[in-house]
Amino acid sequence: MTNLPGAKLILLTTTHRVAPGLLSWPAWEALRSAGRVLAADAGHPQVAAVRQAGVEVEIVEPGSAPALARTLTGQPAGAGTTVWLGSPDGDPGLTDALARLAVEHAGEVPEIEVLPGSYDLPGARLLDLVSVMDRLRSPGGCPWDAEQTHASLVKYLVEEAYELVEAIEEEDRETLREELGDVLLQVFFHSRIAEEHPTDAFSIDDVAGDIVEKLMYRHPHVFGDAQAEGAAEVEANWEALKAAEKSGRESVLDGVPAGLPSLAYAAKLVSRVRRAGFTGVPDAPYALPAELTAESTGTLLLALAQRAHDAGVDVDAALRAAARGYREAVRAAEGLKPE
Fold first, then answer.
1. Whose CA, among 84, 102, 134, 264, lies 20 to 30 Å from 163?
2. Is beta strand 111-116 parallel, antiparallel or unpaired with respect to 36-39?
3. How far apart are CA 54 and CA 74, in angstroms?
4. CB 115 within 8 A of CB 10
5. CA torsion, points 157, 162, 164, 167, in degrees to nearest 10?
C-alpha cells in the first residue's frame, strides 16, 4: 500500500499523569520539525508547554471521529509532516476512522505514524485515585463521601481487610485484585479526610513519604551498609531497629492495639512477651497436647467455641477479659502500674 508522497501524519500520544512538557526526545523532534501541529482543545495539557517551547499549535474543531480523520489526512502531496496532539480521552474512534480511510483511499492519504510522547510510570494510576477522591470529597461531589469521617469509615476498613484475607486464603486471584483495591481506597479515603483537618492536616504524599522513610530505615541491608544473610537475620535487624524507635515505651506490651479482634489481641500479647524473652508471668494453667499443629490448634479452638456457646459464654468477651488480665499481670511483673 502506498501513501500520499511527501505527506506524513504523526499521532502524538501523551499521558496526563506526567507533567506537561515532559516529552520524549523523538516527540520534541517531531514537534519542532513539523509543518503543522494541531490539537482539538486549547486547554489540552500539553498545548501551553509546546507553545512555550516556541512551537505553534493550531486548534481545530474535532467534530466526529470520521470528520476529524478527514481533516487530519486532507493534505496535498509534499505537504510535509503534521503532528496531532492526541486528546487526553484518547480521541475515541479516531484510529479506526483513520484506518478505514487508509484502506478506502489508498495512495490518497499521508503516511500515518503513532508516536508515544510520554509514558505512565509504575504507580501512575495512583494519581487517578487521588483525583477521584478529591472530586468525591469536594463541593459538587458525592454527598455520602463528603459526610464520612475517620470514625465512620472504621467498620469499612475492618470489613475490607477481612475480605482481603478471605481472598488470600481462598487463592482467588480475581477477588484478591478487587479486595486490594478496596483496601487501597480506604487508605486514600482516610488520607483525603486528613487533608481537611484545621490544625494537623496531612496528605497521601505525607503518608507515602513516612512509610518510604520507615522502609528504608528498617532495611539497612538494602539501602545502607548493613549485612543480613537470611530472612531470620533480616527479621532480627528489623525488630532491633523497631525497638530503638520505640525506646520510650515502658512495657513490652506498649503499642499493642486493644481494638484488635480478641484472638488476634491475645496472640499479639503472647508474641510480644515471648519475643522479649520475658518470663515473669506463667502460661495459662490448662493442659494442652504436648505438640500443636495448625490443624490441631484450629480443632481445639473450634471445640472451645462450641463448648463456650453451649455453656452460654461469650467466647470473644471471655478471651478479651483474659487477655486484659494477662496484660496487667505482665505490667505488674515489670513493676508498672495497671493501666
1. 134
2. unpaired
3. 25
4. yes
5. -160
Compute CA 199 distance to the chain's CA centroid, rounded to the nearest angstrom. 26
Which grid coordinates are listed for 150? 475517620
What single letter denotes the amino acid at residue 117? G
Query: Cell numbers of 5, please?
Result: 508522497
Tens of pLDDT along 38-48? 999 899 999 99
Q: Report the C-alpha gap between 181 and 260 in whole angstroms.
A: 23
Q: In whole angstroms, what is the distance from residue 330 CA to residue 289 CA?
A: 25
214-231: average pLDDT: 88
Q: Give the integer Cα–Cα distance in Å for 339 and 325.
A: 11
Q: Three-state SS string across the chain, please?
A: CCCCCCEEEEEEECCCCCCCCCCCHHHHHHHHHCCEEEECCCCCCCHHHHHHCCCCCEECCCCCHHHHHHHHHCCCCCCEEEEEECCCCCCCCHHHHHHHHHHHCCCCCCEEEEEECCCCCCCCHHHHHHHHHHHHHCCCCCHHHHHCCHHHHHHHHHHHHHHHHHHHHHCCHHHHHHHHHHHHHHHHHHHHHHCCCCCCCCCHHHHHHHHHHHHHHCCHHHHCCCCCCCHHHHHHHHHHHHHHHCCCCCCCCCCCCCCCCHHHHHHHHHHHHHHCCCCCCCCCCCCCCCCCCHHHHHHHHHHHHHHHHHCCCCHHHHHHHHHHHHHHHHHHHCCCCCC
Q: In this structure, which amino acid lies at residue 22?
A: L
Q: What's the pLDDT band for 1 if we cut at 50, 70, 90?
A: very low
Question: Tell me, what's the pLDDT at 163?
Answer: 95
pTM of the model: 0.72
Question: Per residue in 42-82, pLDDT tens?
Answer: 999 999 999 999 999 999 887 788 888 888 887 765 568 99
